[in-house]
# Entry
Amino acid sequence: MSNLLLIHITGGVLTGYVVFRSVFVLIKDQKEAYQNLVRSLSFLAAFEVLSGVLLAYSSPSITAKSLCANIALYLGLVALTYLGFAYRSKPTWQNIMALSAPVAGSLGVLVLAIFKGV
# Structure
């Protein structure tokens, strides 16, 4: 379990860096970097959700509700970053929205699961 935790934490640190870099790129309006950052966020979001679920599965102390809440918070941060990219790249927002649709859909399902009492 400790190796899985280390992998999950490393993924979280990388995601934090990509989110920070994304905010910087959005402020500087460096449109050429948008697509690579959105792809990186999409990959890292999937990786973190998968590693988080595996970690929760191997840990008896994590409940389904706390897992859903943690994933919802994480995906919410990623979705807010996607919104920044979509806002800044209005003419080409379709590519960004296509990449972010799985995150937005997953976030909606998780929030519903939390409020309905998993």
